[in-house]
Specification:
About 25% of the residues lie in helices and about 20% in strands. By secondary structure, it is α+β, with helices and mostly antiparallel strands. It folds into three domains: about 190 residues, Periplasmic binding protein-like II (D-Maltodextrin-Binding Protein, domain 2, 3-Layer(aba) Sandwich); about 100 residues, Dipeptide-binding Protein, Domain 1 (Dipeptide-binding Protein, domain 1); about 220 residues, Dipeptide-binding Protein, Domain 3 (Dipeptide-binding Protein, domain 3), CATH 3.10.105. Helix 11 links the parallel strand 18 and strand 19. The protein is globular and about 70 Å long.
């Protein structure tokens, strides 16, 4: 989500003769993992269509409610079914979706003309009533998409295919913020009692968790959480007939099966055996083997997002720590000590096997207004870290719990960081949790020290609002996991949202990011090289957000 266009994905093909997969050669997976993988994938139904794509990832989408979450692993699936008013093209540039055009009528009002002839998957027609309902639903608690729409005061129907969005203050880049604000059928939501978004953090179960009715290129056939999710081609989708350069623009998939497989070895066993066709997160240690195997194609691209460590800065005492009556992370010197204690280049080299870049920036330099010079990290310096802890009044360090999601590469990186922190006296207990336990800790701000990733938008404001602004009801600081609060930054972030001059806006973004770099509410870690591994019969378009668009995928 940024202003500059990414480089095109490169297709890497190597070798001419595929190796033979045996139990003792080639991939050298542990025998037990390979056997478990083959037993697991045997439970998959045989493909019903020649163009059935089977995708494996470590993560389950958790819910099909388009407004309940704002997570990559949810977005990858839910937005094959649900569409937004805008989307992005093959080069990641903004383009029309359910809205065919938009214009700023005055500083506080935008008008959107909607696409004619669109139908939901149940056959009902799409119109302005559905768009108004969906935007209002996304704005209302407990939606986790409200942070994108701060400043929207009203959404009004003008006619059957026109709506106005009214703002409390000017917003020159409002269309950029509308991607991933999913459009639902108002009648369907009312019929099934899901007029409000699912309360994911409250573990609420609603009809919209396992059912969906969108307008997108694929309709939901079946969703079994943590087992499989099946999509079928929506033959009446408005976009299938589009052409570019005299050729069909879109792909030929008839069916898509998503299968969550947390084990790295099992995911690759499934790919090697042909039980899945695409792995969105191949383990880093196996990427050289995949490149050398003529059966597979790899797409690789630098990540627009990155990983962070966030500190609890809200509570007066760290939960479970041996320091009582104080919260060490409220002292900037302690936060800086954590920064100096972590050897991020070593983590990139050993855990990511070189498939990443260390960063000192809070947002990628490709985000509009993010200064490139902030990408440089502070040095790895354990002696400086120990000195800073002593200056802050913690010469013997302290104990803390580090929360991490229990997916292999993330957990391995967290284990390395815990060991590095222990070397300077911060005795760190790692708590690795499954996604359905981890993500509520992130959005509810209940962790003492937590590792997580964030993929920004082209425009910087949604990320600044989500990560750095003080947490408050109504979409402020939704993913500010440490509940960091800085009134000066809040004021600047609010001004960025309403600044119409893009040059001044970029300067204000740079100011916020420099202030954040000085105050260190987070420790920025690294940006990965995104890698998808797929059978040679599959072709796809890769975005720097790591989200796949099934509408472009083809199978030969």
């Amino acid at each position: 989500m940024r202003r500059m266009q990414p480089s095109h994905a490169s297709t890497i093909r190597h070798g001419s003769r595929p190796p033979v997969l045996t139990r003792s050669t080639c991939w050298r997976w542990p025998r037990r993992a390979a056997v478990v993988g083959l037993l697991w994938v045997a439970t998959l139904a045989a493909p019903l269509h020649a163009q059935t794509l089977r995708i494996a990832s470590a993560f389950d989408p958790q819910t099909m409610d388009p407004h309940a979450l704002a997570l990559l692993y949810h977005t990858r699936v839910a937005f094959q079914v649900h569409e937004s008013l805008v989307t992005r093209d093959e080069t990641f540039g903004l383009e029309p979706a359910l809205a065919v055009s938009w214009q700023q009528l005055d500083p506080r009002r935008w008008r959107f003309r909607l696409r004619e002839g669109v139908r939901f998957h149940d056959g009902s027609p799409f119109g302005a009533d559905d768009a108004v309902f969906s935007l209002e639903r996304a704005l209302a608690s407990p939606s986790q998409r409200a942070f994108q729409l701060k400043g929207v005061t009203a959404v009004r129907k003008v006619d059957a295919l026109t709506l106005d969005i009214e703002l409390e203050a000017p917003d020159a880049v409002l269309p950029e913020k509308l991607q991933y604000i999913g459009i639902m059928s108002r009648a369907w939501a009312e019929r099934h009692g899901v007029q409000r978004a699912q309360d994911f953090n409250g573990k609420q179960e609603t009809f919209a968790v396992r059912q969906a009715n969108g307008t997108g290129p694929f309709r939901l056939e079946r969703y079994e959480p943590d087992v499989r999710l099946v999509l079928r081609r929506h033959a009446a989708w408005w976009g299938w007939g589009e052409q570019r350069g005299g050729r069909a623009r879109h792909g030929n998939l008839q069916e898509v099966v998503f299968v969550p497989i947390r084990s790295d070895a099992t995911r690759l066993a499934a790919l090697a055996s042909g039980e899945v066709d695409l792995v969105l997160d191949p383990p880093y240690q196996d990427i050289p083997r995949l490149k050398a195997d003529a059966r597979f194609t790899l797409l690789q691209m630098p990540d627009l997002g990155q990983q962070y460590l966030a500190f609890d800065q809200a509570r007066d005492e760290l939960e479970g720590s041996d320091v009582k009556g104080r919260n060490p992370f409220k002292d900037r010197r302690v936060r800086q000590a954590v920064y100096h204690a972590i050897n991020v280049p070593l983590i990139v080299d050993k855990v990511l096997r070189g498939q990443g870049v260390p960063t000192g920036a809070f947002l990628s330099p490709r985000v509009d207004g993010s200064p490139p010079e902030l990408d440089r990290r502070l040095p790895f310096d354990p002696a400086r870290a120990r000195a800073l802890l002593a200056e802050a009044g913690y010469p013997n360090g302290f104990t803390v719990t580090l929360d991490c999601v229990n997916v292999a590469w993330r957990e391995n990186a967290c284990q390395a960081m815990a060991a590095m922190l222990a070397q300077v006296g911060i005795r760190t207990a790692l708590r690795a949790s499954p996604t359905n336990q981890f993500f509520p800790k992130l959005s509810q701000g209940t962790a003492s020290l937590i590792e997580y990733g964030w993929t920004p938008s082209i425009d910087a404001w949604p990320s600044l609002n989500a990560l750095l602004r003080s947490h408050a009801p109504g979409g402020f600081g939704t993913f500010n996991a440490g509940r960091y609060a800085n009134p000066a930054l809040d004021a600047l972030i609010d001004q960025i949202r309403t600044e119409p001059d893009l040059t001044r806006r970029r300067a204000m973004v740079a100011t916020v990011l420099r202030l954040a770099a000085d105050d260190l509410p987070y420790v920025p870690l690294y940006r990965r090289v995104l890698t998808w591994a797929m059978a040679r019969k599959v072709s796809a378009v890769q975005w720097p957000s790591d989200s796949i668009e099934l509408r472009w995928v083809r199978m030969d």
